[in-house]
Structure formats: C-alpha cells, structure tokens
Amino acid sequence: MPLYSYKAVNSQGATEEGVKNAVDQQALLKELQEQGFIPIRVEPAKAKTFLGFKLGSSDVRLSQKEILLLTRELATLLESGLPLDRSLKILIELTEDNDKLSTLIGQILEKVKGGTSLAEALESQVGVFSRFYLNMIRAGEMGGNLGDVLTRLAEYLERSQELKDTVATALIYPAILLVMSLASLFVMLTFVVPQFTEMFESSGQALPIPTQIVVAMADFLQSYWWLILLIIISITSYMKAQLADPLRRKVWDARFLTVPLFGIIILHMETANLTRTLGTLLGNGVSILKALGIVKETAGNSVIKDLLEDSEQQLKQGKSMSDALVNSECFPKLAIQMIRMGEETGRMEEMLLRVATIYDKQLRTSIERMLAMLEPALIISLGLMIAGIIVSILLAILSVNDLAF
Predict the structure, then answer these.
(1) Is the distance from CB of 393 to CB of 196 less than 8 angstroms?
(2) DSSP 159-186
(3) Fewer Cβ within 10 Å of end Cβ, the chain: N or C?
C-alpha cells in the first residue's frame, strides 16, 4: 500500500507527525480519527534526501507495462458492470504489491470521488499518461462507452509493447556478440600479445611487418586506453547535443532514414505506430484534425513529424489525408494508397489498422533480414581479426626459430 505522511493532534492536545501505509488518504483520515487523533495534514510521503540527492521520489512514474496492467484490469472491471469508484478501490487492493501503481490509483480515486472525470483525474498525474491516452479516455466518457474504450486502449498498448519487445529482443544477440568480440580483441591485445613481446625483442631480429603492427596496437591500447574511452564519451556527448537541437536533429533523422536496412526499419516502425494510433483515435470518435495533432507528438522521427504537421495544415485547407501525403518522399506509397481506399469507402479506421498490421509484419521481416546479414558479418570479422593476431605471432615465432638455427 502507498505511504502517507500525516500531522495530527492527539487527545492530550500535542501535535504528532509520522508516516503510515493506507489504501488512500481518506482511509488514513478515518483511521486517525478512530484512534482519537484530529488530523491536520495527510499527504503522500515525500522523497527523503541525503546531501541534497533524492533517495526516492514522491512523483509517480509508471512503465508501459504497468499502464497496460492498469488499463486492462480497469476495462475488465467496468465491463463487468461495476461503477468507476468501486473498480478503482478493487484495483488498489489488487496492486498492493506495487506501491507506485497503488499510490497512483489512490490519487485518481480521490479525484474521482471529488467529482472530477476520469480523464481529468488521469491528467492531474503529470507526465504519467500521454495525450493520446487522455483523449481516448475523454472520448469514452463522452460517448458513454468507457469500458469498451479501455479495452481498445489495452489492445493498442499490447501491440505497441509487442512491437518494442520484438525490436529489443532481436537486437540482444548482435549486441552481445559485438561486446564479446570487442572484449576478446581487447584481452588478446593487452594480455596475450605482451607475453610474447619480450621474447621477440630479445631475439635481436627485426619482426615481420604484421607482428610489428599487432605489437604497436597492443602498446597503444596499454598506454592510451583512456584516450579511446575519452573519444567514445566525446562522440556520445556530441550526438546528444546534436539530437537535442531541433534543427540538427532533423538533419540527423533524415540521414537515419537513408541508412541501408536501418532506415527501412525506422520507417516501418514509425508507419506502424502512427497508423495504429490514428486508427484507434478515429475509431473512438476523435476528429481527424485533432487525431493528427495527437499523432504527430508520438512521432519519434522529426522528418515524419514535419510531414504530419504539413498534412494537418493541408487538411485544414480542405484536402484529403491521402492527397496531403502523396507528395511525400519518405512515407510508404502502399500506406498512402490504402489510406485513399479508406477515404473512398468510408472505412478509414479499418484501413489504418490494416496498414499498421502490414508494416508490423514488414518490420519483423526487415529486422530478420538485417540480423541475417549482421550476425555472420560480426562473426567473420571477429574470426579474421583474431586469426590475423595469431598469424602475426606465429610469423614472429617462426622468424625467431629460424635465427636460432
């Protein structure tokens, strides 16, 4: 259960302060009154600090999976016929093992009991729920089908999470392979090669050129490893600064889209996310202009975001969405044609969701194709580099043996 701090007056008239676990603030107020206290203040426990650094945070931040859990369970309870406040109370009990989630639900319940709508109660939790999520909830409350909207939201979040998990899982093996490759090379150059250096130097014979190159690389790593680390940190800081500047970020985002295979993956991911979000919003009664305004904020690539902003302006001038997108050089032509079909047949929502499904599949295909090329390339590169080091050492050993005989 969430932790609350309180200040109250006891039966002797003295002021007491402390912290207690409670379902919500109202429950703690009732408990204090039953114990003979007169509550003065009850609020969520604030973060403790040490030397100015926070050890915890009173701000609630939820992961995508926690938001999905909240949405799915609330949808189930509402569709079972339970009222909103009762559903929220049950959710607090169900999430007792997750302090963050139960604290947030308790705060939402308090707002709802005070007469605010669910959308307003969620919006009061700054930085937790996206604009897309809030507008979906607002549309559900206005249409009287909140349970159905929450179910759709849960399905949307599940698909989005599956997409992210697919990308993350696919990149785990290449990342491990790359790290192990670099670690193997580092160990060989800094620990293995130096073991032979003294023997080579004591022979008095000029070493073969490949061996000289490997020994020089080993000496450089031993003496200037910190310089390599500094270069990596500098490049990382430079890229962060570049991507923080909107103008420079647009340039880099345009470059990312042109990278072979990687650019296709970004484009397919953006297309799937944007069309699914737009289709879900339209299916819940949000106007296309308002939906586009929400969707463009979810775009991760600034080139795509600018395209959506331009499309929004053209829609305001009376053009259709497909006409607004048709001159785009980056948005997929298949997606534009399917959007046009949706406009002509009046099945825009269905076509957008179909586009999302198509590009989800194409994204998985693109990732598999990239991995099919990346994994052998990493293995072959590692093998060639290690083989080069071993051959250079063997050449030096053979040259020393020739001198001995």
Answers:
(1) yes
(2) HHHHHHHHHHHHHHHHHHHHHHHHHHHH
(3) C
The token pair that represents 233 in the structure block: 């940190």
Tokens for 400?
């020393």
Q: Which amino acid is at 348?
A: M
**How far, in Å, CA of 251 to CA of 16, rounded?**
59
Number of residues in the chain: 405
| pLDDT tens digit sequence for 165-224 | 777 777 787 788 888 878 888 888 888 777 777 666 666 667 778 878 888 888 888 888
Closest CA to 153 of 304, 145, 339, 117: 145
The C-alpha atoms of residue 55 and residue 132 are separated, in whole angstroms, by: 32
State the DSSP string of 280-345: HHHHTT--HHHHHHHHHHH-SSHHHHHHHHHHHHHHHTT--HHHHHTT-SSS-HHHHHHHHHHHHH
The C-alpha atoms of residue 348 and residue 342 are separated, in whole angstroms, by 4
How far is 371 from 376, CA to CA, in rounded Å? 8
Q: Model confidence over 74-126: pLDDT tens digits? A: 888 888 888 888 888 888 888 877 778 888 888 888 888 888 888 888 888 87
Angle formed at CA 275 by CA 273 and CA 281, multiple of 5 degrees: 100
- Return d(Cα 346, Cα 340) in angstroms, integer: 10
